[in-house]
Amino acid sequence: MDVDQTEPLYRYPYPSPELADQHPFVAHEHQRLEDGEMSRRAKAFLALVAKRRSVRMFSSDPVPRDLIEVAVAAASTAPSGAHKQPWTFVAISDPRTKARICEAAEAEEHTNYLQNRMNAEWQESLAPLGTDHHKEFLEVAPWLVVLFEQRYELRTDGSTRKNYYVKESVGIAAGLFLTAIHDMGLAALPHTPSPMAFLRTLLGRPENERPFAMFPVGHPLPGVRVPDLQRKALEEVLIVLERSD
Ligand SMILES: Cc1cc2nc3c(=O)[nH]c(=O)nc-3n(C[C@H](O)[C@H](O)[C@H](O)COP(=O)(O)O)c2cc1C
After folding, report:
1. 38 CB contacts (<8 Å, ≥6 apart)?
2. Does some domain include residue 101?
């Protein structure tokens, strides 16, 4: 379709000629697909992501570093507020560092689970998952990826700049990371031993960074079991306001 539809649809084209004079723009690379092909792809993607599960026992089999790099590169394509990409991924396969993180996480979780830092409602929600203060998977999984959010930008000259919608942006990057890991045939667990401040000091990250989540990544331990969870039906999560003509 070569017909230029800009004129009847938009009174204010983007970019405006003034904007295009001031900042670089490129043509958007896009191939329009037939409805049938879109439907096929959409269903294939749903079938893929429906199979993703959080795993809590990993094999210790090594995973090549380049697979982790590709997953982080995929995550880093995420949209972000004002394109600030306010995230840092720290990928750890060093056993000593993993052991130190495991020890610190288990200490926090010991307080959470055994000294009542979690209230009754939280404990009730977690009951079907059966999680406790033992976090052996942090040491056993071949990779531990810690995701930091950059609360603000810290430039090399020490000056700072604001970041925007940091949690929203980092959350989307985390989702892409988990999806990339799943798509390549590996498993991960989003893990958030609260509070996680120890990760910043332990990993020597700067003051503008705050731990967002960590992800043990690897092959699932053969025969591992997962909670028999049901996901909400589409009708429970989607409201459609459809045109009526
Ligand atoms: C932000 C976030 C934090 C989580 N923190 C933990 C955690 O600390 N420990 C844990 O075992 N699972 C954690 N999970 C995993 C959830 O329990 C899991 O995603 C949920 O039960 C659904 O299971 P599924 O991932 O297999 O679909 C977390 C998930 C998210 C998104």
Report:
1. none
2. yes
Give the number of residues written for the chain.
Answer: 245
Residue 192 CB–ligand 1 contact under 6 Å: yes
Ligand 1 atom with the shortest distance to the CA of 193:
8
Q: How far is the CA of 205 from the centre of ligand 1 (A)?
A: 24
Does the residue 18 lie in any domain?
Answer: no
> Which residue owns the Cα nearest ligand 1 atom 18?
54
**Residue 26 within a domain:** no
pLDDT of 194 higher than 90: no
Residue at 3 is within a domain: no
Predicted confidence band at 120 (pLDDT cuts at 50, 70, 90)?
confident
Q: Domain range holding 134?
A: 53-221
Query: Would the CB of 110 count as within 6 Å of ligand 1?
Result: no
pTM: 0.95
Judge if the beta carbon of residue 190 lies within 6 A of ligand 1.
yes
* Mean pLDDT for the stretch of residues 181-191: 98
Whole-angstrom distance, CA of residue 121 vs CA of residue 41: 40
Residue 33: which residues within 8 A CB-CB, separation 6 or more?
A: 41
Q: Which of 134, 145, 191 to mutate to test the pocket of ligand 1 (most atoms within 8 A of CB)?
A: 191
Is the CB of residue 193 less than 8 Å from the CB of residue 109?
yes
pLDDT the model gives residue 7: 60
**At 114, which CATH number?**
3.40.109.10
Give residues with Cβ within 8 angstroms of 31, minimum separation 6: none
Per the structure, the count of domains in the chain is: 1
